[in-house]
Amino acid sequence: MRILYIDHYAGSPTAGMEYRPHAMALEWAKLGAETTILAGTYSHLRKRNFEDVDPGRPIDVDGVPFRFLRTRSYEGNGLGRLLSWADFVGGGLRRARAIADATRPDVVIASSTYPFDTWLAAALARHAGAGLVHEIHDLWPLTPIELGGHSPHHPLMWAMGVAERWAYRHSRVIVSILPNTEPHVRSLGIDTPVIHIPNGIDVDQPHAPAPADFVARIDALRKAGRRIIGYAGGMTTANAMDDFVEAMGLLTDEPVTAVLLGDGLLRPDLEQRAARLGAHIDFAGSLPKAQVHEALSLCDALYIGSKRSPLYEYGVSANKIFDYMLTGVPIVDAFASQHSPLAYSGAAVRARAEDPHDIARAIVEATNLPDDERARLAQASIAWVREHHSLPALAERFLTVLRVAA
Hints:
Number of strands: 14
Helix content: 40-55%
CATH topology of the largest domain: Rossmann fold
Oligomer: single chain
CATH architecture of the largest domain: 3-Layer(aba) Sandwich
């Protein structure tokens, strides 16, 4: 079976995110399927881009064949990014027959980081006589409306809505990374089958030891009688780090220190706020991804959170959740969703999103759990990821869907 996987922002372990298409392609190769990924030469998500490659020619990226469409570089979410979308979709439509002839897919996946790419995927599928599958990452235009504050009446939001409904209606099957999107699809009057295939992880991947200076930092805190709540990820409002800092500001009399791994535009503001509140927070900077697991495993509890939004009713499937759960460390779950691995597994200490007082309560609870309860949560957490988010098993399920859709 031949698969053409379209994702403007697709990356790889060495190029940077997005990782899912590349990871699926490697697993499908083990199952006898050939995958080509069609991506843009530039993506704001990657740490290494492909602006010097010859568009249209196949190149190997960490063991997976890629073909690229020339897309301009940009910063932020302004006009440059929109023009990059036009580069990708427009350039792909102009070369659709040549790409289809070169790759000869049995099925084409529009892995939609924005809904307009399904028009390109449909053209490729039509030229190849292939099945069309639409993969949902996020709900467009709901995501920019709810998280970005855009008016639903804005022409771009209207156009996204048209493209979204077209994509859902004309695909043979919809694969959703989010667990609860079927109600949204049905609310649009569309009866295309919706299959939930979440993000996954290699549950047996090796981990590098935490850096010696980080281990020494944790040891020093423990010798001082401190318990440690950890975090790894972006210092952003979307991750509710402002609420977390406020919560730590309420715990200045508790022997709890937060150790935060990561960076971001909000970090200077968070550091200033933490100092003003007298919060016990150690901004430890970033670590290589391979070292994060062992670093987090040294903590007494971990934090993850979000802002409240109707968008989260459709669920979350962030890879960071699985990384956290595989440590077996108790997790303070301040995510504003009932549809997440943390909620489904029952393996976390829940807190109300955007409520620093309740987050503070959960931090104290999680860092003071008795050993038997910590062991129970660890077992439930790791077992859930192994059963529901093992990448090889998810890839096999996905491939079964693709064979039906071809």
